[in-house]
Amino acid sequence: MDTEILIVEDEQKIARFVSLELEHEGYKTKCIADGREALDEALRKEYDLIILDVMLPSLNGIEVLRRLRQTKSTPVIILTARDQVMDKVSGLDLGANDYMTKPFAIEELLARIRVNLKKSLGGTKTSYTLGKLSVDIDARKVTYGDDLIDLTKKEFDLLVFLLENKNVVITREKALDAVWGFDFYGNTNVVDVYIRYLRAKIDNVYKIDLIETVRGSGYIIRQD
Hints:
Blueprint: E1 4-8, H1 12-24, E2 28-32, H2 35-44, E3 49-52, H3 61-68, E4 76-80, H4 85-93, E5 98-101, H5 106-121, E6 127-130, E7 133-136, E8 141-144, E9 147-149, H6 153-164, H7 172-180, H8 189-206, E10 212-214, E11 218-220
Helix pairs in contact: 2-3, 6-7, 6-8
């Protein structure tokens, strides 16, 4: 079955260039230049991945993403000229899987597409249990006993990544690459921030030591 990618880009030359390169790699593509039209298309049809510009007519890309994430988890790579860290954080917090800025190298975009498509296929593991803590990956639900723990998408993804690598020390760089899908040009503080969020919602509330800091290295979840 062909892999279909929706390209949402109002700059015709860029959209055409990306489309031709992807089709050369064997992907099927559809290009849309309008935000509202793109949202309708993404909700109507099951795409394997979406490449999404931010500055779009009728509905900006961030709003398209916000509305899409209310019902769908289609992998989304934001491709935009806006390169401020807060723009990146905003897009990722709303559920983007990756973030690239223009100008970009097509080889890097192709590599990120491959990584995100591979991630979206998932593995055979669909849940984790540590004591009273349960994580249902398919339902994207975390519970402690009978309590439902409300996590953002990135908090959930970071927790799952740590659980997938139990008893392995995860560096901040590895966490960024796996969960955020782009590097912060050496700034890995965002990982520490999200670890604090997870601890505030899990460790501190239930008085457990789920996430351990390995000084000078990173973080680990241990399980015998």
